[in-house]
Amino acid sequence: MRKFFGSNKAFLAIIVGALIVGGVIYFGNSRDVPSSVAPTDLSEAKCLAPSQVLVTKVIDGDTIVVEGGYHIRLLGIDTDEKGYPCYEAAKSRLEELVLNKKVKLEKDKTDVDKYGRCLRYVFADGENIDLQLVKEGLAVARFYEPDVKYKNEIAKAEKEAIDNKIGCKWNPTENNKEKIDISKLNWTELTKEKLGYDVVNACQASKYLGKEMIVQGVIVDTYNSPKSNTVFLNFEKFYPNQCFTAVIFSSDLPNFVESPEDYYLNKGVRVFGKIKTYNGKPEVILEKPSQIEIGE
Fold first, then answer.
1. In this structure, is residue 36 part of a structural domain?
2. Of the four listed, 80, 101, 119, 255, which is most buried by Cβ atoms within 10 Å?
3. Is the overall model pTM greater than 0.85, yes or no?
4. Among the options 117, 120, 142, 270, which is catalytic?
């Protein structure tokens, strides 16, 4: 036995070293657990945040942190991410409404999302804050089954905000306050390196009719036809002066997120497909979600 250890010291040192490194990696990663839930398996996770709690931080227009470090994602709404037109307006308003205040957190059906955040409606001073942000045109309605408790109220508020051009989301003058610089966005899927096709700006797309290309730009105007249920995503300029349009026909809508005309509005995106022309304007037909990507 002594001979074995004596002649295999180097080998044993490598084995011991590997075990130590493996242990450090394992236990280091195991500590990276969402602060809002327990246990670490999100399929069994439960939100630990109390129903009455102090808001300590606002992450963005639809995510807050409450006392205890729990992250709360507001239900029924969606606001712009950082770098998009209404990000600062929504975040600032949410800070005014809830920061350093005691709020009530109300659950619907789903307890936490895939990121481990608690899913809740937030109430402050007796007001539904999710609803308030939509009323002020700072958020869009966004519902996913089975969490639809306040769907009617929030959807009605959104319609009124749209009809009356209220707030940053629906007032073109407000939207123009913060420009999206498409060149500064990052892309992971629709890239020349990954697909092998060139990237062209939306206002140059008419030069590449009949070719498969990646087209990028800001969607500033959208429309869902009530007759055909076809969605039109217009790039850079409002209809009928748009530079380029991405079209989703009714038969393909089930493949996409709910209300893509709202989801992609005021976002910097890339789309991929063969560039065609309709009524003198270049367009790409989107049949599946992999043909469109939002820049970050």
1. no
2. 80
3. no
4. 117
